[in-house]
């Protein structure tokens, strides 16, 4: 195949998914959703074919113009567009993608801040998927988004299940927009700032961290942790979505 004007597979960060169990798993998850589908990074269409068989509107995008042209010929029922996943509107009900590993963070940040989608199924690096799902402790990005989105780890993909083979395994991450947010959308920016302060504040214990981040006395911090059901929690990364929301209600929310 001719080289894209954007570079070859290495420059584009393309590791095409060939692992059939994962292709089947993604299709099964998407089958359980409803509405239009947007696939990010369609590549040669290994997943696109299965999505097209669901009988729903499918738009597939890819940055490689040659693969776009070939996929249009192979799958006439799919709307195939030459587009960049970091810029294309996220205007479908379901977003699916085998994300270039080096673009995982910017694409994920964009996904969590724009678009009208309800469900997302992303194939990322294993450690990224694991951390976003809160396995072994949550990250700041996950905590900032948790009042509006639910994250789940759907499986691990061996490195040999990609072509060319990357140096690390992949992880399948699903994200669902909450029907009833734990924190009002209007307070999202302020809540994100509160979470950032929690993750960056100094303190040997969580009540000390809360006191610093919330600018309250240690006694008030302990009361807030107890009210949020987090009295025995050790670190900010160990807090669950409901506990974050509880702390926000107790001391983070502007009066």
TrEMBL record:
Swiss-Prot/TrEMBL GO biological process terms: methylation
GO terms assigned for molecular function: methyltransferase activity
Keyword RNA-binding: yes
CDD domains: AdoMet_MTases
Binding-site residues for S-adenosyl-L-methionine, renumbered to this chain: 15, 17, 41, 62, 84, 98
This protein's UniProt keywords: Methyltransferase, RNA-binding, S-adenosyl-L-methionine, Transferase
Domain named Ribosomal RNA adenine methylase transferase N-terminal: residues: 22-179
InterPro entries named among the record's database cross-references: KsgA/Erm (IPR001737), rRNA_Ade_methylase_Trfase_N (IPR020598), SAM-dependent_MTases_sf (IPR029063)
NCBIfam families: Erm23S_rRNA_broad
Family, per entry: Belongs to the class I-like SAM-binding methyltransferase superfamily. rRNA adenine N(6)-methyltransferase family.
Protein known as: 23S ribosomal RNA methyltransferase Erm
């Amino acid at each position: 195949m001719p080289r894209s004007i954007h570079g070859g597979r290495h420059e584009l960060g393309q590791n095409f998914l060939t692992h059939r169990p994962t292709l089947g798993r993604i299709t099964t998850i998407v089958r359980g959703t409803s509405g239009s589908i947007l696939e990010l990074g369609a590549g040669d269409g290994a997943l696109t074919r299965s999505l097209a068989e669901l009988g729903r509107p499918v738009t597939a995008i890819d940055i490689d113009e040659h693969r776009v042209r070939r996929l249009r010929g192979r799958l006439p029922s799919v709307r195939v567009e030459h587009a960049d996943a970091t810029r294309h509107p996220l205007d479908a009900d379901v977003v699916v993608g085998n994300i270039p590993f080096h673009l995982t963070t910017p694409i994920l940040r964009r996904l969590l801040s724009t678009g009208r989608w309800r469900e997302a199924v992303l194939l990322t690096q294993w450690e990224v998927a694991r951390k976003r799902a809160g396995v072994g402790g949550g990250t700041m990005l996950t905590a900032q988004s948790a009042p509006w989105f639910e994250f789940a780890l759907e499986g691990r993909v061996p490195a040999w299940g990609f072509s060319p083979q990357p140096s690390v395994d992949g992880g399948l991450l699903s994200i669902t927009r909450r029907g009833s947010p734990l924190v009002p959308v209007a307070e999202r920016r302020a809540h994100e700032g509160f979470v950032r302060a929690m993750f960056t504040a100094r303190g040997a214990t969580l009540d000390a961290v809360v006191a610093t981040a919330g600018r309250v006395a240690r006694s008030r911090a302990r009361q807030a942790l107890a009210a949020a059901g987090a009295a025995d929690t050790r670190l900010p990364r160990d807090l669950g979505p409901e506990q974050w929301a509880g702390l926000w209600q107790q001391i983070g929310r502007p009066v």
